[in-house]
Specification:
778 residues, mainly alpha, five-stranded parallel sheet, two-stranded antiparallel ribbon, disordered C terminus
């Protein structure tokens, strides 16, 4: 069955596939190649696949050793490339390609290369390596730089395509032959040995000033023999690989264009008048193209060819994610094709990791990638690094995390849909979601009032967060992942797991009140509790949801509606603790929509629910209720009664409550903050200052911006009354910064105070809303 001609490989492969009873799709999936590549092999369009590809096909076909050798023997003739002697006229092919008239941006790396060329020393000829993701315009950049620098290189400027994306890249020996011929070496005088060719090349360029662009390099081994050893020549290498093994190289890693640069590129292609007419559509188009030069050029040239088409129409088309890559295709330019070239260059294991990573939510950590690909975490770390080196993922500069470019994520999602069986994808998502929810539960329990000492149940105790700092860091870094896992759990009906995860994190939510995502978390858990048929848990999680609507989303109407449902549910199941919490959260919503008398009535009823409950939960609930009641009475014009109530709260804190001192300390700090505001309302400024300083110190030590921001604002006001203007301005500036960073509704209030103190606060337009509730929720 073996063959000695390249065209026979396809015939043999078709016969072996038919004997195995496999479709092209099944064989492609098993071997880790694309269906298109397999079809090209069988039809003879592609001959001589690499040895590792033949081995993967043989393994997927389940061939015996003899048949595998026959398949390899059939592939071998197609790998042999017999190149005819070069014609002297061919040397003109190495001339620089034409520069693009609409080249945009890249001023900093261009200036860096120019500076490098000026200070070059003969002993160290300068080398620039230009790297970056597919579509970033590496070749265009290198050619543009070469044209700009050409006057400084009078002995010639040449560009050689090393065909790094081809199945058979240019060999160093062939590349040297072309370079030597352009330097005047006759074909008959070319050394046969590649090392001899490299030596001759180095000797010829040592006393010349050349500019050499080596475009589309595959690896360091291909490039090294082509580099001058001495002299003043400049070499610019472009590659999709990082080529980190090249020594003494200046690296120019091209970033995405900024939005204004992306719009400028569109303007140069489409025309200034047309872009000015649809300025917002041009900005939207830049973002939908991911500010990727290739995508922008395709969009621009598409519009240039259709002068009557509006930019808004193209924006609408690109807004459909499922068709975006189809739309970003014009003539022989295509974003998908550019990505496909890099994808097919990867090892099968790296292709699998790349496409599975598209199933993640947000940034990708090694543990997430490992779960999705079902491989050890150490393997995932190495493969992610390789993918980043190939420009297919973007590495975080500070943490071991990676992210996709938006268009590359769409491409990878296409590949996972085409190459992975639905059952395999489902299993990957299930495995990842269960692991994420288990770790999120363990991390959240570090902040729980009862279980914070020894959280259990982590899926990998060896790497589990140790202590609150590590737990918080993990929950913040993986927020998108565990939230996606919670959504997945809700969809899949993992009701108990969803409820337990949300319950474990509800204390942590007090530290991160600026996260609007808590609305979704507790909506999921309330629905899951209802599905479990557990009214007490349903009332509890409805109360958490009411809290999140009020404090995190600043939506008092939704908070009131939710609190009413929680109240009815709690009363129906006879739970006084949750009844009191529902009344408390409902009162906060009533106060925010201006129904203060009703809010006070609800709070007094809530206090009566909690007063007989001497458990730790009951005492903490009573403290929260009293703090809020006092605050509401003060705002209603009765600071004396508010002061009495907040002093009562402080006395309860001093008496002590069973449970961790940290939680009680937070309630004590909340009471002190309210006391400070009571004293302030009564004009007792020094007492106000002391209480607010003590509360602020606790909030800042606990890293609770939603609590420290208001305390900074209130302290700043008091300090102004005391004539301590400089310190007041510092406190108010800190408050405004905190409110702005966390989108707090009181930022307009802080800005107004700063203006009154003689400090301008620019860009603040949000309306002031009332303060937050009186204590952490439970």
């Amino acid at each position: 069955m073996t063959s000695t001609t390249p065209n026979e490989f396809g015939r043999l492969l078709r016969e072996l596939r038919a004997d195995a009873g496999l479709s092209q799709e099944r064989l492609a999936h098993g071997a880790g190649v694309s269906v298109r590549a397999l079809a090209d092999l069988e039809r003879g369009r592609t001959t001589g696949p690499q040895r590792r590809t033949v081995e993967a096909l043989a393994a997927a076909l389940g061939l015996t050793a003899d048949l595998a050798r026959s398949l390899e023997a059939a592939a071998a003739p197609g790998r042999r490339r017999v190149r005819p002697p070069a014609d002297p006229a061919e040397t003109g092919i190495l001339s620089l390609p034409r520069d693009t008239y609409d080249f945009t941006a890249r001023a900093a790396p261009l200036a860096a290369i120019a500076a490098l060329a000026e200070v070059a020393e003969p002993a160290h000829p300068p080398l620039v390596v230009v790297t970056g993701s597919p579509g970033l315009g590496k070749t265009a950049f290198a050619v543009h730089a070469a044209h700009r620098l050409s006057p400084g290189f009078p002995d010639g400027q040449f560009c050689l395509d090393l065909r790094g994306m081809d199945p058979e890249p240019t060999t160093p020996g062939d590349a040297l032959a072309r370079l030597l011929r352009v330097l005047g070496v006759a074909a008959r005088s070319l050394p046969r040995d590649p090392d001899d060719r490299a030596g001759l090349f180095r000797s010829l360029v040592a006393d010349r000033r050349l500019l050499l662009v080596l475009d589309n390099a595959v690896d360091e081994e291909q490039v090294r023999p082509l580099l001058p050893g001495s002299g003043a020549s400049l070499t610019i290498v472009t590659s999709r690989a990082a080529l980190t093994g090249l020594e003494a190289a200046h690296r120019a890693e091209l970033p995405l264009l900024r939005r204004e640069e992306a719009v400028a590129l569109l303007t140069r292609i489409v025309g200034a008048e047309r872009v000015a007419r649809e300025a917002q559509a041009a900005r939207d188009l830049a973002e939908l193209c991911g500010r990727l030069p290739l995508a922008l050029r395709i969009a621009g040239q598409r519009l240039a060819a259709r002068p009557g088409e509006s930019l808004a129409k193209l924006v609408t088309r690109l807004g459909r994610e499922a068709r975006r890559l189809d739309t970003l295709q014009t003539g022989d330019l295509g974003v998908r094709a550019a990505f496909e070239l890099s994808y097919q260059q990867l090892e099968p294991s790296d292709r699998l990791l790349l496409r599975r990573s598209a199933l993640s939510a947000g940034d990708i950590s090694p543990e997430t990638a490992a779960l999705l690909a079902d491989i050890p975490a150490r393997d995932a770390e190495l493969r992610l690094e390789r993918l980043a080196d190939r420009g297919l993922l973007q590495a975080d500069g500070a943490a071991e995390r990676y992210r996709f470019h938006d268009l590359l994520r769409l491409f990878a999602a296409e590949r996972v849909a085409a190459e992975d069986d639905p059952a395999v994808r489902s299993a990957a998502l299930d495995r990842t979601a269960r692991w994420m929810l288990a770790r999120a539960t363990g991390a959240g329990l570090h902040f729980d009032a009862e279980h914070h000492d020894r959280p259990t149940g982590d899926p990998d105790p060896a790497t589990a967060p140790a202590g609150r700092d590590e737990a918080r860091a993990w929950l913040e870094a993986e927020r998108e992942q565990w939230l996606a896992a919670l959504r997945h759990g809700r969809t899949e009906g993992w009701h108990r797991l969803v409820v337990d995860t949300a319950e474990a994190m509800h204390w942590f939510s007090d530290l991160t009140q600026h996260w609007e995502q808590w609305v979704e978390v507790f909506r999921c858990s309330a629905e899951a509790a209802r599905a479990l048929g557990s009214p007490r848990e349903e009332a509890t999680h409805l109360n958490y949801l009411a809290w999140s609507y009020s404090i995190c989303a600043h939506d008092p109407h939704a908070a009131l509606d939710t609190a009413r449902v929680a109240l009815a549910t709690a009363r129906a199941c006879g739970d006084p603790l949750q009844t009191g919490w529902a009344l408390g959260y409902g009162s906060g919503a009533l106060r925010r929509i201006g129904r203060t008398e009703e809010a006070i009535t609800w709070l007094r009823e809530a206090a009566e629910c909690h007063r007989p409950n001497t458990s730790a939960d009951g005492r903490l609930a009573l403290l929260s209720c009293l703090n809020t009641l006092g605050e509401t009475l003060r705002e209603y014009g009765d600071p004396e009664q508010a002061l009495d109530i907040h002093l009562r709260s402080l006395a309860i804190c001093r008496e002590g409550i069973p449970g961790p001192a940290t939680i009680l300390g937070m309630y004590r700090a909340a009471a002190l903050r309210h006391l400070g505001n009571d004293y302030s309302a009564l004009g007792r400024w020094r007492e106000a200052e002391a209480s607010l300083r003590e509360a602020l110190a606790v909030f800042e030590a606990a890293d609770m911006p939603s609590w420290s921001g208001p305390a900074q604002l209130e302290l700043g006001r008091v300090l102004r009354r005391l004539g301590q203007e400089e310190e007041a301005r510092t406190a108010l500036t800190s408050a405004l910064r905190t409110f702005t960073e966390h989108h707090h509704p009181r930022r307009a209030e802080a800005a107004a105070e700063l203006r009154a103190a003689g400090v301008p606060a620019i860009g603040i337009r949000a309306a002031e809303l009332p303060a937050a509730d009186g204590g952490p929720h439970s």
